[in-house]
């Protein structure tokens, strides 16, 4: 009998709380997908070094999954608390009919088990199929090629998901039993009739608190926008102060927002605005903490998604620009600098030069203690700089040598007339100093001869391939002004004589065997896999955490608003009786739900602007974050997920208040 009653209750509630079930299913699916990465087909078509990166990612995700399970557990416990509050009168009727709390607890336990089994089954099914699409994303991130399709099932992720969510549902069941045991019959029967106590706050006090919150947040915003004088140990304090400021914003807003709008009678008495604001005011008083938590979760969502995706876009674009050749060889044997070219030295190691295309380029690098980076930066620029200018020797190249490598790479070539010099630099921090010096006409003196700048700014370029813009500077001089005694390195850039990735990987093995004998070697495959792997790790973790935070915050708001709509059915019925039509009522409901959904989102967006600015400044030495595309992608995810929750909540609430 109790089992049949549990099934009946589940069927009756599934429509009202479809969002809850959908969130559980989505949470299970995401959990499975990200914990099955090491078992997917992508692992079979990417290189061994990329597989090692995936294994590292899986280890990181295993630790993060514990954190994620706490978030999802909090969501499920919080949601179940709403469900129990919604059904207090139902439980009171059961007890009036003679059913004991033990029997009611068994009903709740049965419902929890049924909900858990259904959500686990459907979520795992969605996750298993979703993991197949995740393989395509992983292959794309590591430039692999998937020749054929093979369905893959991860037993490890399957049982891990069951274990984690089984524990979560067990904890939920315990919470339900404990929560029910604390209620008396009179409390259960009168639950619907008890109004929420609204504490009237002094609007002037609230306004002062709002100013204080604004001040706290303003100080933190200023600090994160100027991180050069900040110690990393201060970051937790800044986050804590930001959380406090956010809490105070919502606390103060709950006191003066209503009185502020009431001063504008035209707005306050338009349509059902008075009703909407009263409803909002009565609820925000007791949901300040919840609104703060949701706002911070949305802030985390926007920051990790936009930051992670932006860094990924930047990495991938930079790697395309910074790896224009298949391989670079830099001779490290100084005894052979003047007697053997880089190609000849490489051939002497036993390497087959026939593996390289014939159009490879050889150039030389030079330096002298008579010309340092410090010497090339104008005095006033040095004094005004917040950075110490290094006194390392400058790298010097003949302009003809640089133009050969620039033509090979497909980048800008230089023109350096007699008596002039040019600077090639792409490392932003040093480039700013160099550009300022060139703009001021900084002259160089070398071997008694003075050189004027050929350009007013640095040329964008590089010699050796790196994963990021790391060229701090190359001084280009006319060929006849560079002395052979200054030569420090011989350099060779080449492309493999191969068409397919497999053929290139075979040549790569030969390069790693022979090329490391007296050479510093940089290869496109190695750079892309290493740096692309870091990018992939950051991106996948950002997506994982971002979506979990997003669905958790949206689901809590949705469940709360659905529960509020159920409690407010009588109020909306009164509105109908006094003459409000359905269009006005739906508009009022829309505005009320929109306030609860978009107020924390608005504050989170403001936080995110400064959070992303901080990330961009911290990571500027690695590369610029691609803001536009990442913000568009994040906005699309927010609209799809958060907007979807809002729309479904509104439609569900409309149906609830219309039901008799």
From TrEMBL:
<dbReference type="GO" id="GO:0055085">
    <property type="term" value="P:transmembrane transport"/>
</dbReference>
<feature type="domain" description="ABC3 transporter permease C-terminal">
    <location>
        <begin position="64"/>
        <end position="180"/>
    </location>
</feature>
<protein>
    <submittedName>
        <fullName>ABC transporter permease</fullName>
    </submittedName>
</protein>
<keyword id="KW-0812">Transmembrane</keyword>
<feature type="transmembrane region" description="Helical">
    <location>
        <begin position="534"/>
        <end position="559"/>
    </location>
</feature>
<dbReference type="InterPro" id="IPR052536">
    <property type="entry name" value="ABC-4_Integral_Memb_Prot"/>
</dbReference>
<dbReference type="Pfam" id="PF02687">
    <property type="entry name" value="FtsX"/>
</dbReference>
<keyword id="KW-1133">Transmembrane helix</keyword>
<keyword id="KW-0472">Membrane</keyword>
<comment type="similarity">
    <text>Belongs to the ABC-4 integral membrane protein family.</text>
</comment>
<keyword id="KW-0813">Transport</keyword>
<dbReference type="GO" id="GO:0005886">
    <property type="term" value="C:plasma membrane"/>
</dbReference>
<keyword id="KW-1003">Cell membrane</keyword>
<feature type="transmembrane region" description="Helical">
    <location>
        <begin position="235"/>
        <end position="258"/>
    </location>
</feature>
<dbReference type="InterPro" id="IPR027022">
    <property type="entry name" value="ABC_permease_BceB-typ"/>
</dbReference>
<feature type="transmembrane region" description="Helical">
    <location>
        <begin position="204"/>
        <end position="223"/>
    </location>
</feature>
<feature type="transmembrane region" description="Helical">
    <location>
        <begin position="54"/>
        <end position="79"/>
    </location>
</feature>
<feature type="transmembrane region" description="Helical">
    <location>
        <begin position="17"/>
        <end position="34"/>
    </location>
</feature>
<feature type="transmembrane region" description="Helical">
    <location>
        <begin position="631"/>
        <end position="650"/>
    </location>
</feature>
<feature type="transmembrane region" description="Helical">
    <location>
        <begin position="288"/>
        <end position="311"/>
    </location>
</feature>
<feature type="transmembrane region" description="Helical">
    <location>
        <begin position="162"/>
        <end position="183"/>
    </location>
</feature>
<feature type="transmembrane region" description="Helical">
    <location>
        <begin position="593"/>
        <end position="619"/>
    </location>
</feature>
<feature type="transmembrane region" description="Helical">
    <location>
        <begin position="113"/>
        <end position="142"/>
    </location>
</feature>
<dbReference type="InterPro" id="IPR003838">
    <property type="entry name" value="ABC3_permease_C"/>
</dbReference>
């Amino acid at each position: 009998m109790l089992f049949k009653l549990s099934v009946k209750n589940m069927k009756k509630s599934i429509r009202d709380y479809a969002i809850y079930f959908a969130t559980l299913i989505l949470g299970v699916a995401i959990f499975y997908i990200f914990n099955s990465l090491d078992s997917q087909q992508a692992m079979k078509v990417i290189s061994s070094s990329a597989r090692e990166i995936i294994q590292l990612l899986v280890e990181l995700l295993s630790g993060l999954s514990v954190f994620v399970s706490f978030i999802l557990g909090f969501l499920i416990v919080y949601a179940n608390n709403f469900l129990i509050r919604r059904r207090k009168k139902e439980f009171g009727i059961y007890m009036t009919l003679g059913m004991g709390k033990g029997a009611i607890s068994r009903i709740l336990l049965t419902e929890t088990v049924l909900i858990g089994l259904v959500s686990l089954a459907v979520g795992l099914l969605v996750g298993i199929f979703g993991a197949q699409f995740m393989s395509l994303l992983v292959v794309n991130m590591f430039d692999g090629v998937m020749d054929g399709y093979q369905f893959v099932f991860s037993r490890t992720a399957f049982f891990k998901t069951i274990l984690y969510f089984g524990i979560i549902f067990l904890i939920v069941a315990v919470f339900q039993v404990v929560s029910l045991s604390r209620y008396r019959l009179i409390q259960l029967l009168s639950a619907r009739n008890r109004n929420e106590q609204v504490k009237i706050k002094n609007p002037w006090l609230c306004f002062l608190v709002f100013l204080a919150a604004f001040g706290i947040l303003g100080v933190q915003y200023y600090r994160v926008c100027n991180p050069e004088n900040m110690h990393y140990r201060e970051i937790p304090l800044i986050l804590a102060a930001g959380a406090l400021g956010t809490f105070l914003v919502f606390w103060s807003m709950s006191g003066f927002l209503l009185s502020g709008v009431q001063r504008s009678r035209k707005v306050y008495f338009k349509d059902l605005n008075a009703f909407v604001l009263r409803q909002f005011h009565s609820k925000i008083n007791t949901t300040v903490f919840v609104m703060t938590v949701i706002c911070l979760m949305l802030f985390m969502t926007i920051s990790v998604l936009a930051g992670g995706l932006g860094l990924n876009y930047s990495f991938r674009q930079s790697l395309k620009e910074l790896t224009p050749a298949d391989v670079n060889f830099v001779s490290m044997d100084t005894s052979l600098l003047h007697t053997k070219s880089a190609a000849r030295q490489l051939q002497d190691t036993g390497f087959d030069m026939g593996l390289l295309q014939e159009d490879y380029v050889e150039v030389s690098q030079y330096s002298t203690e008579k010309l340092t980076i410090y010497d090339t930066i104008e005095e006033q620029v040095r004094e005004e700089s917040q950075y110490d200018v290094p006194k390392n020797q400058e790298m010097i190249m003949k302009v003809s040598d640089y133009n050969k490598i620039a033509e090979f790479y497909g980048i800008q070539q230089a023109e350096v007339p007699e008596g002039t010099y040019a600077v090639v630099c792409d490392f932003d921090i040093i480039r700013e100093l160099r550009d300022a010096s060139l703009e001021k006409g900084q002259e160089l003196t070398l071997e008694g001869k003075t050189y004027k700048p050929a350009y007013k700014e640095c040329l964008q370029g590089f010699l050796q391939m790196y994963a990021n813009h790391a060229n701090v500077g190359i001084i280009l001089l006319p060929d006849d002004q560079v002395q052979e005694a200054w030569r420090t390195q011989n350099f060779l850039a080449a492309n493999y004589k191969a068409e397919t990735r497999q053929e290139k990987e075979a040549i790569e093995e030969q390069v790693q065997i022979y090329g490391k004998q007296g050479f510093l070697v940089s290869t496109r495959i190695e750079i892309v896999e290493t740096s692309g792997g870091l990018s992939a790790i950051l991106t996948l973790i950002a997506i994982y955490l971002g979506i979990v935070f997003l669905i958790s915050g949206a689901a809590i708001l949705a469940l709360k608003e659905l529960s509020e709509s159920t409690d407010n059915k009588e109020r909306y019925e009164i509105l109908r009786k006094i003459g409000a039509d359905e269009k006005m009522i739906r508009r009022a409901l829309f505005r009320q739900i929109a306030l609860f959904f978009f107020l924390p989102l608005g504050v989170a967006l403001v936080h995110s602007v400064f959070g992303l600015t901080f990330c961009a400044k911290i990571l500027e030495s690695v590369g610029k974050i691609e803001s536009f595309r990442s913000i568009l992608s994040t906005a699309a995810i927010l609209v799809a997920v958060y907007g979807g929750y809002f729309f479904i909540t509104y439609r569900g609430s409309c149906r609830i208040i219309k039901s008799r």
